[in-house]
Design brief:
With about 120 residues, the chain is α+β, with helices and mostly antiparallel strands. The protein has 4 helices and 3 strands.
Length: about 120
Amino acid sequence: MSSVPGGYLSTPYEVRDGRLRITLLGNTRSLRIFLKTLQKVGLHPKIVLLADAVFSLNSPLGLLTEKQKTVIIDAFKNGYYDFPRKIGSEALARKLGIREPTLVIHRRKAERKLFAHMLGMPSKR
């Protein structure tokens, strides 16, 4: 996956009949920025499908509860994992309408599951 501001370009890319098909996972703002960037270099992008992402159970995000998924995705989209951080736990919790300790619990459990999956280790000790 390649990174674009606020999102990812998901691989594999598809080339068919002289056209390139890509998948962008991100928010509306990241889509607008990406489309404008393509237009600036003389490309003429066409949106074929605009939908909410659905993750299969085979996906690492499929390992998470809905609350964990919401927290980890919103943390990423809002810059929690950027350096320097664009949002802290307290502000993110307010944005999501939950208490900060609750946000931290969901985030850390999600991180543990995702890291365990990436490292091929059990998520519980």
